[in-house]
Write the structure tokens for this entry.
Amino acid sequence: MSGLLQRQLRDFAVAAGLAVVIASVAFVAARNHDVIDRQLALAERSVAALAADGEVLPTVHGALIGPAISSPKHPELRHRNLRDHGAWRLLAGGDPLHPDDKLFYDAAAHFDREHQPFVELLRDGSGRAMAATAHGSGPAAETAVAITEPASPAGYPLLVMIGVLGLGGALSAAGALVGGRGARVGAFVGAFAGIAVLAIPALLWQSWFAALVIVVVAGVTAMLQRAGLTNKLAHGLVRDRVAVSFLAPAGLSMLALVAAPFLLGIGLGFYDHHQGTWSFVGLHNFIEILSGNGRALDDPLNFWFILGVTVLWTMCNVLLHVTIGVALALLLSRKWLRGKGIFRMLLILPWAIPNYITALMWHGMFDGQYGAVNSILHGLGMDGVSWFTSWTAAFSANVITNTWLGFPFMMVVALGALETIPKELYEAAAVDGATPWQRFRHITLPHLRPALGPAVALGSIWTFNMFNVIFLVSGGKPGDSTNILVTDAYRWAFERGDRYGMAAAYGTIIFLILLLWNVFVARIVRSKGDDDS
Amino acid sequence: MTRQPKLLTRMFAHLALLVLVAVVLYPVMLVCKKAFEPGRDFALSASPIPHELTLDHFRSLFGSNGEHLFVRQALNSIVIAVATTVVGVFISCTAAYALSRFRFPGRKAGLTTFVVVQMFPATLLIMPLYVVLDKLGLLNSMTGLVLVYSTTAIPFCVWTLKGYFDSLPRELEEAARIDGASPWMIFREIILPLAKPGLAVTGLFSFMTAWNEFILASTFMTNESHYTLPVLIQSSVGQFSTQYGVFAAGAIVTSVPVMAVFYVLQKYLVGGLTAGAVKG
């Protein structure tokens, strides 16, 4: 009987730990949501009071801002006056600048543009809210703006959690103590109910989803326990406890920061995000992406077009990297070459430079008017190229940059492989009268393969995902046509109206493509390796 | 012995290499020149020789604006990179040791997982990570960035360290075990001191990962005082300002230290990078 109780409490402790984490996440989310709502409401109320010439709470920074007045001498320079704390002053005129002045100025400009009262959360992550509305009417109308203090969120409800945990533990133990014929059912119901009780706090915070997940955890635990799998797992963990304790830190952090966002990403692909609200749309995002959404095949936003660009981009680069890298390695491995060490050191320089700096550097050199590349072309008597207005030119600019930064890796790998080739092979071949091409084809190439295979696999994946070069050199120009899949997914998330769901669906599709490619490459690399050994 | 080729061929080979070296050095020289030449150009122009020398760009980088933004962001970068190194190396050295020495169910699956994860860039997870960090209130915080960076670095570090541990002789551990040492003691007292070179390589790799990363930092950090150096450098030639002088100065200051490190380490990097791709 005590063994049963022990098992029950052990399983409860593990599942309850998981449930507490889920509930806590739900709490933090709900709390943040709550705080945001309160901040927005406070800003809105304060600005309404200001518009009615009332007072605001001392914690709210409220101000009336006058219309923009053109300077008499320079009509394009405009300034505004502002009244806070009862006196008028020049907005943004003080030295040092009042920290909120820029916010006030932008709010007034925003209001002048749209003539709509608005309330929003500041984008600086401080948790402050800002609202604006009109004060008075006509051309001299002022804008009333209120900015709240940073919020102080509610504390963690420790007592609630402890109480619920105690209740769950008691239920769970009670289930295990049911004797006789009901023992099995009792244990099952107890395990389920004990953990499911932890869904109550999630329900209190109105996180239906978290509550549902906790109930599912409860059900799964109870069923696993019934099938004896929790026992098996526990024994395995005890047997390999040393290995498990060594692996735990890496395992847990990968779980939290790779597995969880990854699963979340897959899930979000089924939702649409519009102005802060999520709605479930099923497979709609995927269908929209894969069908091209009625866009022509040469439309830069058509998925198949981007996939084509990505594949072309990867192939061009890997081909250039390998050709240049191997050619250089062959040259550098000649006995008669002078200054080998220095050449090698200088030629790997592009690999040493952080790649975002390389990308920005080449972006500057490709500048149409002042850039170095065009100046050199002029110097050679050729016409300059407007690098970012035609697809071919922009794509070439990207490829040139990436070739420059990518060939040293292949060169170093090939050099390493060449060193392992026994000299006797070449001597024997020379005795047999083999031509240089035959020597390369039958001695050098087979020895390069085992090292170059994995390097090419890795290089193709790096290039496929080479965000920085595309993003910083052409930036997708002209008209988004030189984007590759990863930069396009990024733009859906952060530049095309926060379409997070769309970006997540893109991420899932990219993941599947890379997975297929991985399996394919791994097979090729391995079968080649087997041939040679 | 193969015969030496003709003199002409040899000269041609040297010449070709010299041309390539010039192509490699030219952009770098342009950046160096820009950093020391006065003026606010819109691009990197052709001549690699400056007309005039000045330290103005470095001065404006180091905070003539009175806020010492660069110093602040350099500190952010250092703190984040050091924290990433410590967390990343600690997490991966224990995992690598377990994968190298112990046999347990799921070991192969674990190794494969690390390879697969290494293939997927953090850029792909950027959106869900953004949502997770936003919900947890870790946007705009160094903690969030350090956690993300160290997890990104783990797969590479685990593979490199596992390779290193595999190469260490097992006799010492067996002797220690017979003398009654616990696994943790063996790991701490015998393995870690022996693995110092391997730890140095992985540590410096984690450092470089964090030091050179720009897109996650610029997405997760919205407040200027929280930026890291790559974000600052990128914004100096961004859409709204083109100050190639400041960019060049910043590029030199931030990349020279990591380049020095890279030259010391590059031998080891190749082994670590390709090991994961074959053995999976």
Summary: Residues 244-279 of chain B form the longest helix (36 residues). Chain B touches chain A through 93 residues (CB under 8 Å). The CA atoms of residues 114 and 244 of chain B lie 40 Å apart.
